[in-house]
């Protein structure tokens, strides 16, 4: 009787946890759907008075060339990141290094058995995953695509490239990562996008410091920093259409032609 009681208690506790996780998932799903509705209903998300936030200082001459370059960097960086995670203690990543050795067989087994509720550290689920969801989002947003496509791209990358791709070789796909990464990542990504526009339109300075401005640009979008600030995009033939701007300035005695070039 004691054994049966303990088993019933454990089973009930497990069910309670699953119910709580399911309710949390439903709330996140509602937030994500609300975010998508706002995207679809809004034609102009920001007023004209916020041009320093709304208008980017970098607009590539080819959206798809920029996205292709960023995708190449994303794959390279993700593989490097997976290698770093593999070297970290198993207590942090929850990756079974012995289990990873049989890649093919274990990958199929993990994909078929998921998704599950993982037991990763809170900062992995609620900080690093949303951060990388934001980085995925920014690749299309800064290439010139709208909110909707950028959110969809973040979902594709986080779900099929990472969760059911690289990470599935090490652990079973999880519900938290599938929902939190694109949902919160897209929200953070748009905030990062506004911050990047503000800094770049302010001569890449933050609080009067170019170093601090450059540091924040790198932290918010390391891939975009390599393409734009380290000039990889220029080496790949991608040009910034905002580099040269010209306009007429009216004056009392006529008009003045003004041309600016962004270095």
Strand order of the largest sheet: 1-2
Radius of gyration: 23 Å
Could you tell me the mean pLDDT? Answer: 75
Largest sheet composition: 2 strands, antiparallel
| Beginning-to-end CA distance, first to last residue | 78 Å
Shape: elongated
Oligomer: single chain
> Quick one: how many beta strands?
2
In sequence order, what are the helices and strands, one letter per element?
HHHHHHHHHHHHEE
Low-confidence stretches: 1-12, 38-45
Binned, the helix content reads 55-70%
What class, by secondary structure content? mainly alpha
Enumerate how many helices there are, as a single number.
Answer: 12
Proportion in β-strands: 5-15%
Please explain how this structure is put together:
This protein is mainly alpha-helical. Helices cover 68% and strands 6% of the residues. It is built from twelve helices and two strands, in the order ααααααααααααββ. It has a two-stranded antiparallel ribbon with strand order 1-2. α8 (147-166) crosses α9 and α9 (175-201) runs antiparallel to α10. The longest helix has 40 residues, at 2-41. The chain is elongated, with a radius of gyration of 23 Å.
Structural features:
disordered N terminus, elongated, 12 helices, mainly alpha, 263 residues, single chain, two-stranded antiparallel ribbon
Give a quick summary of the entry.
It contains twelve helices and two strands. It has helices at 2-41, 51-54, 63-87, 90-93, 97-100, 103-113, 122-141, 147-166, 175-201, 210-220, 222-229, 232-235; strands at 244-251, 254-261.
Write the layout of secondary structure elements.
Blueprint: H1 2-41, H2 51-54, H3 63-87, H4 90-93, H5 97-100, H6 103-113, H7 122-141, H8 147-166, H9 175-201, H10 210-220, H11 222-229, H12 232-235, E1 244-251, E2 254-261
Antiparallel strand pairs: 1-2
């Amino acid at each position: 009787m004691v054994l049966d009681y303990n088993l019933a208690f454990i089973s009930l506790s497990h069910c309670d946890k699953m119910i709580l996780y399911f309710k949390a998932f439903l709330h996140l799903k509602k937030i994500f759907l609300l975010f998508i509705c706002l995207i679809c209903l809004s034609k102009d998300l920001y007023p004209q008075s916020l041009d320093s936030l709304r208008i980017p200082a970098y607009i590539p001459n080819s959206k798809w060339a920029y996205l292709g370059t960023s995708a190449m960097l994303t794959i390279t960086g993700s593989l490097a990141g997976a290698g770093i995670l593999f070297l970290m203690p198993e207590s942090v990543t929850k990756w079974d290094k012995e289990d990873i050795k049989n890649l093919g067989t274990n990958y199929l087994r993990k994909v078929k058995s998921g998704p599950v509720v993982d037991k990763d550290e809170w900062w992995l689920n609620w900080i690093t995953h949303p951060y990388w969801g934001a980085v995925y989002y920014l690749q299309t947003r800064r290439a010139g695509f709208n909110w909707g496509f950028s959110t969809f791209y973040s979902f594709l990358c986080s779900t099929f490239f990472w969760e059911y791709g690289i990470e599935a070789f090490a652990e079973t796909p999880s519900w938290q990562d599938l929902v939190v990464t694109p949902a919160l990542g897209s929200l953070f990504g748009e905030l990062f996008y506004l911050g990047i526009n503000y800094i770049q339109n302010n001569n890449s300075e933050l609080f009067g410091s170019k170093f601090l401005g450059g540091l924040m640009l790198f932290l918010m979008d390391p891939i975009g920093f390599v393409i734009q600030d380290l000039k990889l995009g220029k080496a790949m033939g991608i040009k910034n259409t905002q580099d040269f701007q010209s306009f007429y300035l009216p004056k009392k005695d006529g008009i003045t032609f003004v041309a600016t070039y962004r270095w």
